[in-house]
Design brief:
The complex is a heterodimer of chains A (about 100) and B (about 170). Chain A has about 100 residues and is mainly alpha-helical. Chain A contains five helices and two strands; from the N terminus they run E-E-H-H-H-H-H. Chain B has about 170 residues and is of the alpha/beta class. In chain B, about 35% of the residues lie in helices and about 15% in strands. In chain B, helix 1 links the parallel strand 1 and strand 2. The chains are: A mainly alpha (about 100), B alpha/beta (about 170).
């Protein structure tokens, strides 16, 4: 298994750079991953990240639609926070597995 | 010569049919592309226009006749004679919509909003709009423009672009 250093911590990552173990995640690790993706994290980003982590911890599937209904941000806002491919970027920063969702 | 060297940059999706499954095929493909950060244009033409017509978009049906993949719940073949009965097609369509809701698949209008929220663009075919005598305000607000086939092709240029006809 590959390892990578973020914010001075060695974390296990898969070949796409997603954290293998969500327990190794911290806000500092998130900041470092985000920096690598050229995203500056704000309070709003962290609200979305917390929501993603909570949902994953509960074993629920992640979809763009569920984020739009979270009350934190609408779908347009979600695309603005994580430009390009928001669900892929946000889950990477949140230290959870890449979602297998088609919606 | 690997795929990584030429990633897909833009998809242009054409939806010419108005059945529930045909419309959803186009919408899922389009929204999936938007989610991946791929530039996305969708062109609705002929019966596909139902998907972006305010009056029709919420009542799309799946065909119970002439559809060999149609099954009864449990997997037994769906008798064609049953498909003729009034209300059966509506019932089957309602059942499909319920199943989709459980998988977090949005309704047609919501799907269109999701696509445009992510920067995707929706177009209506001018020829078909004229043919069905539709007015601009009868179309969904998510429709960016009513354009000709030629104009649509102009939007489909560029390396790494694919046209998908559903």
């Amino acid at each position: 298994m590959a390892q990578k250093e973020y914010a001075g911590v060695l974390v296990d990552v898969n070949d796409e750079g997603y954290l293998e173990n969500s327990e190794q995640w911290s806000k500092e690790v998130a900041q470092a991953i985000a920096q690598e993706l050229s995203i500056v994290l704000t309070e709003k980003h962290f609200q979305v990240i917390d929501f993603l982590r909570e949902r994953v911890a509960k074993g629920e599937a992640l979809t763009i639609r569920s984020i739009g209904k979270s009350g934190i941000v609408d779908i347009k806002g979600f695309y603005e926070l994580f430009p390009g491919a928001p669900l892929k970027l946000a889950t990477k920063i949140a230290g959870v597995k890449k979602p297998l969702s088609c919606v | 010569m690997t795929n990584e060297e030429y990633p897909l940059k833009k998809v242009c999706i054409i939806c010419a049919k108005g059945s529930l499954e045909d419309v959803y095929a186009a919408l899922v493909m389009a929204n999936g592309a938007v989610m991946e950060g791929i530039e996305t244009k969708v062109f609705f033409t002929f019966f596909g226009l139902d998907a972006i017509t305010k009056k029709q978009m919420n009542s799309l049906h799946t065909a119970t006749l002439g559809n060999p993949a149609m099954r009864m719940p449990g997997g037994l073949p769906f008798p064609s004679l049953l498909g003729v009965l009034p209300g059966v097609e509506a019932g089957v369509s309602a059942m499909m919509k319920k199943q989709m809701e459980q998988l977090d698949i949005p309704t047609v209008p919501e799907f269109l909003e999701m696509i445009t929220a992510g920067g995707g663009e929706i177009f209506a075919c001018k020829l078909a709009v004229d043919m069905f005598k539709l007015k601009r305000d009868e179309l969904s607000d998510e429709v960016k423009d009513v354009i000709t086939v030629g104009q649509f092709y102009e939007l489909c240029g560029g390396q790494g672009t694919q046209i998908i006809f559903t």
